[in-house]
Amino acid sequence: MEEGELFREIFLVVAVALAGGALAHYLRLPVIVGYLAAGLLIGPYTPGLVGDPDRLEITADVGVAALMFALGVQFSFRELAGMGKLFVVGGGAQILLTMALGLAIGPALGLDHRAALYLGALMALSSTMVALKILDSRGELRVLHGRAAVGILIIQDLAVVPLMIALPVASGADDGSLASLGVALGKAALLLVAIYVLGTRLVPWLLFRVAATNSRELFVLAVISLAAGLAAASFFVGLSPAIGAFLAGLIVSESEFSYRTLGEILPLREIFATIFFVAMGMLIDPAFIAENADTVALVAACLIVGKFLIVLVGVRAAGLRGQTPLMTALVLAQAGEFSFVLAKAGVDKGVIDSDLNSTFLAAALVSIVVNALLLRLAPAIVLALRHLPGGDAFLTVPVRAYHGEEPESLRRHVVICGYGASGRELSEAVGRRGFKYLVVETNPFIIRELRHDRTPCIYGDASQPEVLEQCHLESAQVLAVTIPQLVTARLAVANARKINPDLDIVARGTGPESHAILREAGATAVVHPDFEAGLEFVRRTLHRYGIDSTQISGLLGRRRIDYYRR
Predict the structure, then answer these.
(1) Is residue 294 part of a domain?
(2) How far does Cα 467 stand from its chain's mean position?
(3) What share of the chain is helix, strand, coil (3-state, %, to 5)?
(4) Which of 3, 227, 331, 411 is the most exposed, fewest CB within 10 Å of its CB?
């Protein structure tokens, strides 16, 4: 009978998660929203089918451990060092300021300072899964605001580990003294030292021997044994098993097996994480939310508006200008999957009660939905801000030109707006043939690199007429707008066309709709990188079948004409 109930429970959770995730995907919302809503649907507080939260608790704990293990595998010390002080300081400041925001709203929620501090920590974390998916779908992972958001997200994710250690002690769940905090951190340090020894001596040797068997099953079992063993060791010394799972992932991340491990563990992580989010949704009490709608609204507003302003000011104070602080703040203005992990730890330790947990879960759900809508409206928000008093000045990057020579000598040159992968490739090709070019970029780190190489460049927003006037477009040969953001690219094309009606303007598009918009703005030609990459695959494949190069060129030419005409 018990076995039948268990399988019924698994089927129920997986089925409602599938339905909820599919509905969220159809509505173009993050699937986490669907999983939480699915949990709410089968929770004990709603009529109809009811799942058993107690039965799911162990599986949810495994989901937390899987999330933390995958985080450890994906983490790279080299990547963190390469981000520089900007993201480290900005990310740390954002976490501390958001925790301070939690303390500030605590009295209005009737919370003591310990619960308010914990609430601030829950609000400080953003969803890495949601942000990366949105940035990737918009082609903005390598854009400056994408890199800034990813850097801050990494700092937030890493902060989960010390927060899980320090917050229960600091909040008084354990002995709230500094001595107890020191003991907890000391245990973590000893565990880290032991893991370092294992990671540099035993684990690489073991994984190599298992990998040499060419057995996928044995490799997966070895990885799971490592994660489960260190999770158990972490629990044995009085720490959260999730911390041990993270440290296990950290061991693997520095080995040559990190990518294989990640590939093998990701499906398991997704399954257990889905069950975890459904279990969290089951804890949401709709009646409690209806009775405390003002409280939920306040927490949601702090999550969205308060966190947006903190990130906006922090990124701008760190030296980034233009649309970068705004877009970075929009990406991070929501709660994250590790907020739920931290909330569960707080409930288990008795730091926060079920009412505060239910309030936060509801506010987090609202923040993720609203954030997805705001990011969808980001181009309209940018345009609206430009028309507000002072908005255009706030979004404008101060122009700093470095021509490397007398500006008057720039004749028949190429102006490259955006120095990403496409811009770099174009500059190298033009430079090798002795033609002059000028780069316009908003990334201060790229500008520093260009100036060091004595490359003519302008630090500024290419959509601004004042910046384009510095580019001597009246004597330029080509303007290449490689910027992926459609709003910025459209303004750059339109303003450049006003300066030089006869200029040859090539712009980067993202699909048929963007092609029409850019051509209407004045682009001579529009290039779609993904489509061009597809044509290259076609060319190489047909060449392998022995088709003549002339025939291939004709085929691709006709396909290119049809695509861009459409």
Answers:
(1) yes
(2) 30
(3) 70, 5, 25
(4) 3
pLDDT score of 165 more than 60: yes
Distances (CA, A) of 191 to 69, 180, 444: 16, 17, 40
Residue whose C-alpha is closest to residue 532's, from 508, 548, 514: 508
The CATH number of the domain holding residue 128 is: 1.20.1530.20
Distance of alpha carbon 408 from alpha carbon 400, whole angstroms:
17
DSSP letters for 528-541: -HHHHHHHHHHHHH
φ/ψ (deg, to 5) at 376: -65, -30
Q: Quick one: how far is CA 308 from the chain centroid?
A: 15
Phi, psi of 25 (to 5 degrees): -65, -40
Distance, CA of 192 to CA of 408 (rounded, Å) = 60
Pairing of strands 400-402, 478-481: unpaired
pLDDT (mean) for 502-518: 86
CA separation (Å) from 61 to 170, 269, 275, 276, 320?
A: 23, 12, 10, 7, 40
Do residues 320 and 373 share a domain? yes
Q: 90: closest CA among 247, 304, 324?
A: 324
Answer whether residue 413 is part of any domain. Answer: yes
Q: Which domain holds residue 266?
A: 61-384
Angle between helices 53-74 and 2-26 (to 10 degrees): 60
The residue assigned the tokens 């006037």 is 469
Q: Do 375 and 442 belong to one domain?
A: no
Number of folded domains that form the chain: 2
Match 């030292």 to its residue by tokens: 193
The predicted model scores a pTM of 0.69
Integer-rounded Cα Rg, in Å, for the chain is 27
Contact 496, 479 (CB under 8 A): yes
Cα-based distances in Å from 494 to 287, 323, 348, 414, 511: 53, 18, 57, 17, 19
pLDDT at site 225: 83
Ramachandran quadrant class, 458 (left: phi over 0; alpha: psi -120 to 50; beta: rest) = beta
pLDDT tens readout for residues 416-465: 998 988 889 999 999 888 898 999 988 877 888 888 888 888 888 888 88
Question: Counting beta carbons within 10 angstroms of the beta carbon of residue 501, is it exposed (0 to 12), middle (13 to 18) or buried (19 or more)?
Answer: exposed
- Which of these three, 352, 384, 416, is where a domain ends? 384
